[in-house]
Amino acid sequence: MTNTQAATLMIQGTTSDAGKSVLVAGFCRCLKRLGYQVAPFKPQNMALNSAVTADGGEIGRAQALQAQAAGVAPHVDMNPILLKPSSDTGAQVIIHGKAISNMQAQAYHDYKKIAMQAVLDSHLRLSKQYQVVMVEGAGSPAEINLREGDIANMGFAEAVDCPVIIVADIDKGGVFAHLVGTLDLLSPSEQNRVVGFVINKFRGDIALLQSGLDWLEQRTHKPVLGVLPYLMDLQLAEEDAIQANQTIDQDDIRLRIAVPVFSRISNHTDFDMLRTHPQIELTFVRQGQNIPAADLIILPGSKHVRADIELLRKLSWDKDIAKHLRYGGKVLGICGGYQMLGQTIHDPTGIEGTMGSSNGLGYLPISTTLQIEKQLTLSKGRLILQADVHNNDIEVLISGYQIHVGHTERETGFNAFALLDDGQLGKGQLDDKQLEKGQLEGCVSADNQVAGSYLHGMFDSPEALQQIIAWAGVNTDEVDSYVSHQEYELDRLADACMTHLDWQKIHTFITEQTYIHTNKQTNKE
After folding, report:
1. CA dihedral in degrees (350, 60, 133, 237; nearest 10)?
2. Residue 285 contacts residue 251 (beta carbons within 8 Å)
3. 123, 268, 324, 456: which is the annotated catalytic residue?
4. How far is Cα 194 from Cα 189, in angstroms, rounded to an integer?
5. What is the pTM of this model?
6. 456 catalytic residue (yes or no)
7. Which residues contact 310 (CB under 8 A, 6 or more apart)?
8. CB atoms within 10 A of CB 371
9. What is the pLDDT of residues 404-441, one digit of tens each?
10. Any idea which architecture 8-234+485-516 has in CATH?
């Protein structure tokens, strides 16, 4: 290791959802507070929720959140390999932010040597720019069938020779078996690089756990670096699991929203601001359930649009939507949901599966053709959706990101959802010149009941959220922006990590690796 390289510290978990993503975010915020320049890193991620970087790449949502915790801009090197499942045995493979192909599991297993080089290249670049690289593992390092050619856990840790902390979720039960069993299934060299354990989501009196902690340290000769408490209602963006519907006082509800959950739902973090709004009842509708009475139905994004619109019809959700519209309700589609609201969806080359075409729901005058090249852009502009109850003279700015393979054609004379990249144009009629430049985004039906857009993250701005809620027919109190909300939650997490983790020991894992800390930042938070 040269004096230009950062310290690398890796968090691995005993299981999926043990707390790796959250703990890395907490470490990033704590190290930032302590004056370090820190970057998050996940060698290989598998998730349908992704974020778009400023340079037009695609990474996992968790790494974007961790970058926010570290106070740095997300970059494709923070998640060099992203796998987006397209079936139970296949996935789209994204390397350095760009989709290269769809592969079946066995083909990707054979491809791992090439993928590992991409991982190491990204890690090297980050290690030359930052003082600490905080690495998140994937799943469990003790999956025997996945250990050969591993690039996500101990295979990476061995390649870069970094220390590893193992985290386990005590709320699941069996925490000592998880930790001891995981350690026992590692090779001797892998066991040696494990520098300690963190126990996550503890509830109750820590004194009642102490005998177990003592036994664990005696049994493994590894220190317990901390026991993190269960943080009630911690509302950080989830990468995979859709969080439970929020229960709010019925007297406080001003808007009821229903979101059908598709088999390949993507970017469900779009709904975090709605789910946590104190005056919105948001219901995720699962397969086998009817869409309940609501003011607004939102069709989410999908990794497999044609398959999911067939699922929608199979579950009779199309009939629920038609009934909802007859009673005057509103429908909004985001990305794949937007495509479903149109006339047709064409997949001439089989990008999402079998070649062919599917009929849309027919509520918007659009048709979509799936194309090989994915659109990855950060977007901003002016929301021109006409609200039912609102002061329409107020200019409402909107921002978000687009991530789709669909090219959507709209009929002339349509109403647009937003006018993007427009800082100077005044209000009034949108002309053909603007249309030719591609500034108009999305579509709204002539009766103003149905709207669609490719913009993920449209609810994250308080002003845009207010306008869309008003389009649905009500007014609500304004809430903080999504970024502000996540900042508050990251600070809650960091406070717990600062209090309950052994930072003296953690500091030694960092300083023993490199010489670069002579350049440590002088500003402290």
Report:
1. -170
2. no
3. 456
4. 9
5. 0.85
6. yes
7. 358
8. 16
9. 999 999 887 778 999 987 433 333 344 445 544 547 89
10. 3-Layer(aba) Sandwich (3.40)
